[in-house]
Automatic annotation (TrEMBL):
InterPro entries: G_CP_dom (IPR030378), P-loop_NTPase (IPR027417), Ribosome_biogen_GTPase_RsgA (IPR004881), RsgA_GTPase_dom (IPR010914). GO terms for molecular function: GTP binding; GTPase activity; metal ion binding; rRNA binding. It comes from Cellulomonas xylanilytica. Residues 80-236 form the CP-type G domain. This is Small ribosomal subunit biogenesis GTPase RsgA. The lineage of its organism: Bacteria, Bacillati, Actinomycetota, Actinomycetes, Micrococcales.
Length: 336
């Protein structure tokens, strides 16, 4: 009999799953062992590493991965061109950033680009509002770069802003929290869950939080929503497309469209609308630099991915050719 399960935690060589009718926070997950490569087949013959939030069809002999409706992915570390799925089948990406120390606008833009690329809805959550003298002013600075995105300022100790986030926890919705170590993701998840489901750490002497979450985990809530906490991300490679970048940087993209030349490099060409906006002070140099940096990273990752796919296709045809030639020779026939 085939049963449907949700991955609540992914470890090397195995996943912890809950049955589709047991996502109420009252059931204990059980372990499903993967193949020796840690991969699961899909309906179209592809083999992928399962991640938190995936849906698996499991029978007595094997597991198969259902198609992902959305996926939050990052460029993998090292020289490989493969991407890493951080969470799948998500509805909302909570981009969590602290107000103390000061928020990193470039990091928020990076996370928003990943969130838009995922297909889910991004929401910015600014934590530790009780530790700064002007949370409203800092929130306005973030909102100026988080275009078309809801920005919530919260304080878990005082309860400020939590009701607006709880409104997102509708039955069946899956939310994932991403952000740097010390941003208070686990504390936020615990507050939204109404119980301690993730470990938290004390602040260091320099005011930054200690990294506590070491794995991604899906937490079913009593009301029917699900939350995914993730380890802190110090640096994350961008996997993006033009639509994701243009959405995150809609202001810059609109200026680029107004340039006189379609291939304008925005480096002094005549009729450059971006350069004119920079000169007038209407566009911050920092935001322009951030847009260029993320565009270069996305283009580089896309080139690496294309090269990998071409190499895999060559290897596949080499294998097909060898099998064909082996069939022509027949069993036991020597090579001419």
């Amino acid at each position: 009999m085939v049963e449907l399960f949700r991955v609540v935690r992914a470890d090397k060589g195995a996943v912890l799953v809950l049955p589709a009718d047991g996502l109420d926070g009252e059931h204990e997950p059980h372990r499903v062992t993967l193949d020796r490569d840690g991969l699961v087949g899909t309906e179209d013959g592809e083999r992928l590493v399962p991640t938190v939030g995936d849906w698996l069809l499991v029978d007595e002999t094997r597991a198969s991965l259902r198609p992902r409706t959305t996926a939050l992915v990052r460029d993998s570390a090292g020289a490989t061109s493969r991407v890493q799925a951080l969470a799948a089948n998500i509805d909302v990406v909570l981009v969590v950033e602290h107000l103390d120390p000061d928020p990193d606008l470039g990091r928020i833009e990076r996370m928003l680009t990943l969130a838009w690329r995922s297909g889910a809805t991004p929401v910015v959550v600014l934590t530790k509002a009780d530790l700064v003298p002007d949370p409203d002013g800092m929130t306005a600075e973030v909102a100026a770069v988080a275009l078309a995105v809801d920005v919530h300022t919260v304080s878990v100790p005082t309860g400020q802003g939590l009701d607006a986030l709880r409104a997102l926890l509708v039955p069946g919705a899956t939310l994932v929290a991403v952000g740097p170590s010390g941003a208070g993701k686990s504390t936020l998840v615990n507050a939204l869950a109404g119980r301690d489901v993730m470990g938290t750490g004390e602040r260091r002497a320099d005011g930054r939080g200690r990294h506590t979450t070491t794995h991604r985990e899906l937490v079913p809530l009593a009301g029917g929503a699900m939350l995914i906490d993730t380890p802190g991300i110090r640096g994350v490679g961008v996997v993006a497309d033009d639509d994701a970048l243009d959405t995150t940087f809609a202001d810059v993209a609109a200026l680029a469209q107004a340039c006189r030349f379609a291939d304008c490099h925005h480096a002094g060409e005549p009729g450059c609308a971006i350069r004119a906006a920079l000169d007038r002070g209407e566009l911050a140099e920092r935001r322009f630099d951030s847009w260029q940096r993320l565009a270069r990273e996305a283009a580089y990752q896309a080139r690496r991915s294309d090269a990998r796919l071409r190499a895999e296709e060559r290897d596949r045809w080499k294998k097909v050719t060898k099998e064909y030639q082996r069939g022509l020779r027949g069993p036991g026939r020597p090579r001419p």
